[in-house]
Backbone:
């Protein structure tokens, strides 16, 4: 029995491919390898962006879970990037002291605004 919501998500197209021999094991190994690399990288990039390091853990994990549900392929790679960290610092540092509660609030607002714009671009089929 397929749940109605799952059938409408992109994961429904590629999830049956996990039944292939060795696919689940290979994906689990790739996920573990990626986590070993991405988690410390996320902490470093959060610091680079002027955010408290613990925010890097969230930004290393949450996008991967979202990409797993809404991504068009199980082979897609998702993770933090240093260019985005530097851009965030450059945009928000003139408005608030990096690491301060106001800075964190502004970065989270920026994050949600970028996500909303990406969602609009997706709905309009322009991205």
Residues:
């Amino acid at each position: 029995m397929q749940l109605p919501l799952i059938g409408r998500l992109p994961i429904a197209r590629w999830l049956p491919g996990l039944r292939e021999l060795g696919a689940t094991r290979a994906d689990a190994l790739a996920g573990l390898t990626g986590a070993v690399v991405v988690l410390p990288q996320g902490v470093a990039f959060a610091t680079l962006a002027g955010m408290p390091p613990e925010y890097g853990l969230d930004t290393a994990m949450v996008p991967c879970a979202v990409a797993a549900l809404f991504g068009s392929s199980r082979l897609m790679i998702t993770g933090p990037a240093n260019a985005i960290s530097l851009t965030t610092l450059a945009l928000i540092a003139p408005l608030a002291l990096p690491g301060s509660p106001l800075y964190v609030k502004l970065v989270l607002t920026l994050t949600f605004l970028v996500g909303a714009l990406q969602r609009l671009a997706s709905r309009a089929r322009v991205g």
Notes: The chain has a mean pLDDT of 83. The chain has six helices and no strands. Residues 4-123 form one domain.
